[in-house]
Design goal:
The chain is mostly helical and 337 residues long. Helices cover 67% and strands 2% of the residues.
């Protein structure tokens, strides 16, 4: 089992970094450049035209891992990794449509919020019903740290699941606003799920292969996305990544672990909600210099100290890693470990 998880990580890394050698010049050649929001930090305008849709690197990498390292799991009748891949691909496709619209219009406006939300909601509901049908998800809600499980009515569970999935996907998307930030924040999340596979054993091996392969793919992608970024993941990558994180949380049957494991995603989302709500209530006043939270720090925060993109990467990745360790402690005794 250990060998497969390591192999998944290595193949994910090599595949993503290798694909990038050809993909980045190709995206540049077809002028698949990102349009930067004019209401963002002014110094971000220098990134205008940087190739987007680079998330294809880690998407292709984890797909390759699932079909190679995960093949033996399928022979044993375990398709957990393929369900996660399929679900994440659906969200990646929604992101691709969004990126395509942005490139076609040559501005940072793709699909409408309403269209994206409806597509995501349908995908979330379909995933939950599919996972329930094949026995990967129960309506018993596991509560980490307390190590107890509470049964929920089917309808309530589906509503909760759809809310958590759509929220997670969009929270990860919000985190993708600074070079390397979404990838760096998400690598500890993927490593957490791979570590849980070590803890829980063969029954979740296919899920561990997916998690480990995605961690390797994200690291390979960071070779091109770390500041100064040569390519952005785009909504193609960020929505796929959000879908993958949500899929793993449900496939391991512990969605509430996202409260601690996804702490940086939550902070980013809350900062955006607080900013918009307070702005409307006070008719123009702001809590943050700019939302989401990484832009607030980037512009000097409340202290006046401006964080560089590399410092933000280190902060978000470090906090994410610390909370991944905390989350691991929270589920350590689930199956009598």
């Amino acid at each position: 089992m250990t060998g497969k998880l390591i192999l998944a990580f290595v193949i994910g890394f090599v595949a993503a970094s290798g694909i990038g050698v050809f993909l980045v010049p190709y995206l540049r050649r077809i002028k698949a450049g990102q349009s930067i929001k004019t209401d963002g930090p002014t110094w971000h305008m220098s990134k205008n035209g940087t190739p987007t849709m680079g998330g294809i690197m880690f998407i292709a990498a984890v797909a390759l891992v699932c079909l190679t390292v995960g093949f033996s799991c399928m022979l044993d009748g375990d398709y957990g990794h393929m369900f996660c891949l399929l679900f994440a691909l659906v969200f990646g496709a929604i992101g691709f449509l969004d990126d395509y619209e942005k490139l076609k219009k040559k501005e940072n406006l793709g699909l409408t919020a309403r269209k994206k939300f409806l597509l995501q909601l349908v995908a979330a509901a379909a995933f939950i019903f599919l996972m329930r049908r094949f026995g990967y998800v129960t309506t018993n809600l596991y509560i980490p740290f307390w190590n107890v499980t509470k049964p929920l009515p089917e309808a309530l569970y589906v509503i909760l699941a759809a809310f958590v999935i759509v929220g997670t996907v969009n929270a990860v998307n919000l985190t993708d606003g600074v070079d390397g930030l979404a990838a760096g924040t998400s690598i500890p999340v993927c490593v957490f799920f791979a570590a849980v596979t070590f803890l829980w054993g063969q029954s979740v091996l296919s899920l561990g292969v997916f998690a480990s392969g995605l961690a390797g793919g994200l690291l390979g992608f960071l070779l091109y996305n770390f500041n100064p970024a040569k390519v952005f993941m785009g909504d193609t990558g960020s929505l796929f990544l959000g879908g993958a994180v949500a899929a793993m949380a449900f496939a391991y049957d512990m969605p509430l672990i996202l409260v601690t494991l996804g702490i940086m995603y939550i902070i980013e989302t809350l900062s955006d909600i607080i900013q918009v709500s307070y702005f409307k209530l006070t008719h123009g006043k702001r809590v943050f210099k700019m939302a989401p939270f990484h832009h607030h720090l980037e512009m000097g925060g409340w202290s006046g100290r401006k964080w560089t993109e590399r410092q933000l990467f280190a902060l978000f990745t470090g906090v994410s890693a610390a909370f991944a360790i905390l989350s691991f402690i929270g589920v350590f005794h689930r199956y009598g470990a």
